[in-house]
Structures are given as C-alpha cells and as structure tokens.
Design brief:
1 helix; ChsH2_Znr; single chain; mainly beta; globular; NA-bd_OB-fold; binds zinc ion
Length: about 210
C-alpha cells in the first residue's frame, strides 16, 4: 500500500494522520477543546480540503444532521441542554473537560469518576473576543470576511470550575460584564455539506435568540 493510499484510508476511517503538514487535532476554534489524534471530529484537521461555509447566523441549518463536534461533553437540546463533566467519588472534584482516567487533584488518593451534568447557569469570570482568523485546524472559509466572535469564561459556583466557550451568536464583548449571569445553550460550531457540528455556547440569561 502506498503512503498516499494509507493516508486516504486513515482519513476515511476518521483517524487523524500526524506528521508534517498534517496537524494533530488538539485545538479548536475556541481554543477551549482538546482532542486526541484519533477520531478527530474536524475534517479540515485531517489534512483534507473541504468546502466549509462559515456559520452566518443563529442555530445552523435544520436539515443537516446535528452531530456533536466532540462526543460526551454535552447532551440534550433546548432547555434540556447540559454540559457533561465527571466527579471524583473520593474528593468530589469536578472536571470539565471530563476526566475519565484518574482524579487530577494532587491531594486525592483517587476515586471512581462518574459522569454528571454541570450547572446550566454560571457567571462571567472573564471574556474577550477573537479578532483574527486562527490557523488550521480552525475551520473557516478564507474566502469569506472574518467575523469576530466573543469568548466567555464562565464560573460554575457549585462545581467551582471555569468553563470556556464561545458566546452565542449576536453576543459581543460590548454587551458583556464580569459577573453577568450566562447559561449554556446548544450551538453550531460549523457546517459541512451534510452535518451541523454542534457545540455549547454561553449566552447571557434574558437574551433569547
Ligand atoms: Zn479525587
């Protein structure tokens, strides 16, 4: 099998080739997510050339299949949408992104880690916006003008963690303040021909789409 054939099969299998010119899928548009090199959900990170159109508005295209951009990090739709973390049975530390192997608390001997839905609402701990187009593996169409998006770090009081995420469409830094209440809502990271790849967004409470 030639090198190209092997690479093509890896792409077809959803396995991310790693090497020069083939970036590992370990960062995302928001910079908040990390993935292993296998089963990368971002096709552009697999070294393929795709025609992606930037998400111009709210909610995505309903006719597309809605598939989580990363499995196991959130669940549900609408009011039932929740981020999923894990909690250590020994020290009650909560982890997001989820930790499924061992407790990361250095003072904990380690317990079992169980999946838990995180609080739907939190308060803005910090925020900023992205005014330039990130490099690959960020998925965007370079032929379209860059549209800045806001990033929100939301503190979840019960879990005592801060979760980074993009703001909901239409929300800009001009409308944000530290301490403002936000809620996790479903959103679309990007779309390709068949699929709307879903993710979470932070949206100030009281703001409706
Ligand atoms: Zn622990």
């Amino acid at each position: 099998m030639s090198r190209q054939e092997r690479a093509d099969r890896e792409v077809a299998a959803g396995i991310t080739p790693v090497g020069p010119g083939r970036p590992r899928c370990n960062t995302t548009p928001s910079g908040a997510l990390r993935f292993t090199a296998r089963a990368c959900p971002f096709p552009a990170a697999r070294g393929t050339l795709l025609t992606i159109r930037q998400i111009p508005s709210r909610g995505g295209v309903l006719s597309h299949t809605r598939t989580p951009a990363v499995a196991g990090w959130f669940t549900g739709e609408g009011d039932g949408f929740r981020l999923l973390g894990t909690r250590c049975s020994a020290c009650a530390s909560v982890f997001f992104p989820r930790e499924d192997v061992h407790c990361r608390n250095p003072h904990c001997a380690g317990g079992s880690l169980e999946e838990i839905p995180l609080s739907r609402k939190g308060r803005i701990w910090s925020y900023t916006d992205s005014r330039y187009r990130p490099p690959s593996p960020y998925v965007s169409n370079p032929e379209l003008p860059w549209e800045p998006y806001a990033l929100i770090a939301a503190e979840l009081a019960a879990e005592r963690i801060v979760v980074l995420g993009q703001a909901a469409p239409g929300v800009t830094v001009a409308g944000l303040t530290v301490g403002m209440e936000v809620e996790a809502v479903p959103g679309v990271l990007y779309e390709d021909a068949e699929t709307a790849w879903t993710v979470w967004r932070w949206r100030p409470t009281g703001v409706t789409e």
